[in-house]
Each structure stands twice: as C-alpha cells, then as structure tokens.
Amino acid sequence: MKILLVGAGLSGAVIARELAEAGHQCRVIDARSHIAGNCHTERDADTGVMMHVYGPHIFHTDDKGVWDYVNRFARFLPFQNRVKTTSQGRVYSLPVNLLTINQFFGTTLRPDEARAFIEEKADTSITDPQTFEEQALRFVGPELYEAFFKGYTEKQWGCSPTELPASILKRLPVRFNYDDNYFFHRFQGMPEDGYTAMIAAILDHPGITVELDTPYVPQMAQEADHTFWSGPLDGYFDYRLGHLGYRTLDFERFTYQGDYQGCAVMNYGDRDVPHTRITEHKHFSPWETHEGSVCYREYSRAAEPDDIPYYPIRMVEEKELLAQYVRLAEDSQCVTFVGRLGTYRYLDMDVTIREALDTALYFKESISSKKPILAFVVPPI
Ligand SMILES: Cc1cc2nc3c(=O)[nH]c(=O)nc-3n(C[C@H](O)[C@H](O)[C@H](O)COP(=O)(O)OP(=O)(O)OC[C@H]3O[C@@H](n4cnc5c(N)ncnc54)[C@H](O)[C@@H]3O)c2cc1C
User: Fold this and answer.
1) Quick one: average pLDDT of 73-94?
2) Any idea which UniProt keywords this protein has (predicted)?
3) What's residue 169's pLDDT?
4) Which residues are known to be catalytic?
C-alpha cells in the first residue's frame, strides 16, 4: 500500500520503518527543514556542542522492547539526569530528597526521622486534595511547597497551583534517601551522535522517502491509501472549531567560555525570576570535551497560533474542545492520528515509540484481517 506519514518525528519515523519493512511504500513529509521533530539535535556551529534544539531530551524507559529498538539504530551512552534548583538564594538537589531536606532545614535527619519530620509539616486537615496546592500542602507542608513547587509551577503553567488538578503532582513528591536520579527507569541514556542521527537511521530504508520543507496538503492524502497524521489534531481540520491550548517555550541562547553552571539542568523556583530553568547542553554529552558552552534560558508562556506547541494544557475547557475534534476525527476516512500532537497528550519518547510500534502492528493486522482502520489506536481521552 501507499502510506503517507505526516511528520518526520519519532512517531512518523517508527511507523514508516515498521510498514516499510512489511513491504509498504512510505512517503514521510515534514513542514520543517529537518527530521526528528522536537527531538531534533544538531551541532552548534561555533562550539561543536550537540544541541537539543527544542529543549533537553533524556531517554529513559522500563520497556525492554523499546530499549532494544532504539539500540538497533544508535549507540546509547550512560546518562542520568541530576537536576539542581536555585531557590531563595541557595542551590539544592532535585527531586526533593534527603539532601534537599537536610540542606533546606539545616538538619542531619536519617530517612525515618525525615519522614516523621515532613509528616509533622503536612497539613493533615486536607483529607481529599483537589488542587495541586492542596496536594502539595497535604504531603510536604508549606515550606517545601513554597520553595520547590509553587513558583516553578506558576511559571510553567501560567496559573496558580490552586487552579491545577491534584493529579499533576505525584502522591508523595519527596524521596527520603539520597537518590537524585531524576528518573526511576531501568534503562537511561543518550544516543552518542544525537537523536537526529538515530531517527535518520530509522528512516534509512529503501521503502521510505522523506520530503522536508513540505507542509501537508489534502492532495497528498488522495494519492495515498492511508495517512498517519502526527501533526496537531486541530491542524488537520484547519482549526475550524478553534485552537487546542498549549504552552510554548522561548529559548534565550547564550554562550560562555568554560563551564557555566556545572550541570545540565538548573531550575529556578522563585516566582520573581522569569525563566523556569537554564540548560547547558554540553553536559548532556559528558563524554565530549568542549571549551565553549551554549546555554538556553527557558521561558514558558501560552502558545499563540503561530508558536510551536509544546505542552498540551488539557484542562476542562480544552478537553471539551478535544472531545469535539475526536468526534470529527472518528468520522474521517483513511487517516489515523498518532503521536503527541495527533492525540494531544504529553508523551515521553519511549511511550511515543511503544505506541508507534503498536500502531504499525495494529495496522498490519487490520489489513490482513480486512478490518476497518480506526482514527485512533490510542484514544486521546
Ligand atoms: C520541552 C520538551 C522536553 C522533552 N523532554 C523529553 C525527555 O527528556 N525525555 C523524553 O522521553 N521525552 C521528552 N519529550 C517528549 C518528546 O519530545 C516526544 O516524545 C516526541 O517529540 C514525540 O514525537 P512525535 O513524532 O509524536 O512528535 P513531534 O516530534 O512533534 O513530530 C511531529 C512532526 O510533525 C510535523 N508536522 C506538524 N504539522 C505538519 C504539517 N501540517 N505538515 C507537515 N509536517 C507537519 C512537525 O514539523 C514535527 O516535525 C519532551 C518534550 C518537550 C516538549
């Protein structure tokens, strides 16, 4: 069959590869001038540093199948994300762990003591937390909430934590040991030559053609037997019901000779500091040596129609609009919506790959059993 894949990010690339290996002809298009979507990496022309152009990407997963898959296409080197935060004029370790607690309160507590100490601080009058703020106060108390959660969350989401659902914050967002590895997953690493080289290897198959600087036009779908759409769900329908809300990011690039901050990611928890974090990209490739350094100062704000959509907002209003777009999508023929934009969800890379592999399998099985192909393999709601 002739398959059109809109988007040369992870979703489009993985589905194209799986279907090309099954003998289908895959045409991958992307409006941008490069492959890899938001995972795109490229070397900075001045310093040689490998840049995560759309923000830092750390690969982590518990899915052995996905880990084996990415290792087919790239050599992964060990990398663990160890984030720091500047709050109220001091630097602390994140996620909030025993070191953070002991530094913040000037204590030398052991795990059990720290647990009891934080339980004392928690507001136990909140029995059924509904909002982010109630959840935080219920589990960590006012001091840690103010220093590490409140200001950062306000900047990231552009609203008060009293307006955000409790579900955004994990049940107990504190560790009572010295583990400062940001992710819990068994497999973690960075592709040695960057994500774009990995995705180029995924797309490197005789059954796949890639066209860049090529925005979708409906004529393309008419020339194909089936379309996989990894662009914005509302974009497929020309935003006819309105725009689904996203947060976007502005990156202010600056350079430095030497080591600017000594770590890859430094958060800024205070409300009066306008940026949410600074990322120093050479620390994402600790096996490389560069004299020069490139950093991104990162700001979050509501996305306007021409901005790059980063984080779906998915509050009550957006979910109502999403439900309407889902109904339109389900009435469409010969198109399946995939990926972070096509299903309007935040997806880590490993989840994106898992869903893409499952989607390709579903498609192949549906074709061989002559079943209709659904608009969504993973429902967005
Ligand atoms: C700031 C940020 C940091 C992240 N950090 C991590 C991390 O540390 N670890 C992790 O696992 N995941 C991370 N992610 C998630 C990761 O970026 C996604 O999992 C991944 O990008 C999803 O791939 P995709 O192919 O679905 O979407 P995308 O990468 O967005 O690809 C979609 C592509 O479709 C193209 N397109 C859209 N519309 C059209 C059109 N009309 N015509 C033609 N082409 C079109 C776009 O140009 C784009 O290239 C992060 C995400 C963000 C926003």
Assistant:
1) 97
2) FAD, Flavoprotein, Isomerase
3) 86
4) 171, 175, 247, 277, 298, 346, 348
Q: What share of the chain is helix, strand, coil (3-state, %, to 5)?
A: 35, 20, 45
- As for ligand 1, residues whose beta carbon falls within 6 Å of it are 6-12, 29-32, 37-39, 55-59, 215-216, 230-231, 235, 249, 310, 339-341, 347-350, 352
**Structural domain of 129:** 95-168
174: in domain? no
Q: Is residue 319 part of a domain?
A: yes
| pLDDT per residue as tens digits for the range 240-273 | 999 999 999 999 999 999 999 999 999 999 999 9
In a domain, 380, yes or no: no
Whether residue 32 is found in the same domain as residue 164 = no
User: How many domains does one find in the chain?
Assistant: 2
Ligand 1 atom, smallest distance to 339 CA: 26
- Report the atom number in ligand 1 closest to the C-alpha of 216: 42
Please tell me the predicted confidence (pLDDT) of residue 172: 74
Question: What distance in angstroms lies between residue 35's CA and the mean position of ligand 1's atoms?
Answer: 10
Closest-CA residue to 83 (of 302, 284, 324, 290): 284
Name residue, tokens 């194909």.
Answer: 224
